[in-house]
Amino acid sequence: MEDLVKKAGLGDILQKVKDNERISCEDGIRLYNSPNLLAVGYLANTVRERLNGDNAYFIYNQHINYSNICTNLCKFCAFGKDKSSDKAYEMTVEDVKEKVRERLDEPISEIHMVGGIHPDLPFSYYIDILKGIKDVRPDVHIQAFTCVEIAHLAGLAGKPVDATLKILRDAGLDSIPGGGAEVFSPRIRELTCDKKLSGEGWLEVAQIAHRQGLKTNATMLYGHIETIEERIEHLDALRTAQDETGGFLAFIPLSFHPKNTEMSKLSRTSGIDDLKNIAVARCFLDNFPHIKSYWVMVGPKMAQIALSFGADDVDGTVKEEIITHMAGAETEQAMSIEELVRLIKEAGRTPIQRGTLYDVIQTY
Ligand code: V47
């Protein structure tokens, strides 16, 4: 394989990877531009195995989207709706509790909860849904509210982000998911999500969370109008932030799904691009412990192959995924533990059911 990498003109990057030396932005761009997927994958797999051996993680989780009403109405999103839309919905605190109650017989360890930027729900609503979940399921880990929502909640609370996070944590918040990062580039934000919190703002919220010991994830929405340079700028900003505050757990590249969005004329991402994003991220984000291939977006088959191209996590059981399915995802809405374990074993990896903070619940 090393010969293949050298023939692909990536021998210098191979040397850096072997020496555990950081690759540069130029190296990252070369990896993206390389037509030799196997060479890029080999480099990523080397980093993956150094950091995570043969481990491949998944989680037993439940997704709850408390409301799709949103004032940002990003062009790439099929989930967010104006309040006046007949497709708009909003769960009451009791509805959220019922969702949790319905699945109390399952060994769910994490609830992943996000929603739109709602124009008029009060701050108390967010506190009440966190407390309501913990009332019904006290031991569950709540990973909720993207950095974009947290900034909005701080506005509602009339307090700095730091103080707002402390209030949310007291109510039951345990960690923050990686959504809302999109592509940090101001050009992309201007063209696709001009009302959304800026990239700098997103990173600032994540770093404030890290400084108080709260773990967060990071994403990048790829495969629309962003350039390779903009992808690398995004990864570079994440890597720099992680050097400073160290609280990111996982990076998840999110493949753009165009259906029912204002960008529906664009095509879905290709398999090559899906694997490249995993592989380049694994090589570039040397300070991120985990790279997740989110099976809901890329499909279980691609997530399985991604385990040899840098990924060490496939997310989890999920169930009732709305955001990607409204944008045309054709994947199932849920996977069982048995399916996840089979998928991972077939890839030659060791399936590990994890908690949110990558604590081992069971090895299969
Ligand atoms: O914030 C919106 C993105 C995100 C589309 O942290 C779209 O572990 C593709 O962040 N096509 C929500 N993507 C999902 C998310 C996530 C998922 C799984 C695990 C984790 C984690 C985070 O999805 C949004 C936005 O960035 N998104 N519309 C679309 N049409």
Looking at this protein, list some descriptive labels.
4 iron, 4 sulfur cluster binding, TIM Barrel, 11 strands, menaquinone biosynthesis, 364 residues, transferase, single chain, 16 helices, alpha/beta, binds ligand V47, iron-sulfur
Q: What is the global morphology? A: globular
CATH class: Alpha Beta
CATH superfamily: Aldolase class I
As a whole number of angstroms, the C-alpha radius of gyration is 20 Å
| CATH third-tier fold name | TIM Barrel
Present as ligands are: ligand V47
Function: Radical SAM enzyme that catalyzes the addition of the adenosyl radical to the double bond of 3-[(1-carboxyvinyl)oxy]benzoate, leading to aminodeoxyfutalosine (AFL), a key intermediate in the formation of menaquinone (MK, vitamin K2) from chorismate.
Enzyme class: transferase
GO molecular function: 4 iron, 4 sulfur cluster binding; 7,8-didemethyl-8-hydroxy-5-deazariboflavin synthase activity; aminodeoxyfutalosine synthase activity; iron ion binding
Protein name: Aminodeoxyfutalosine synthase
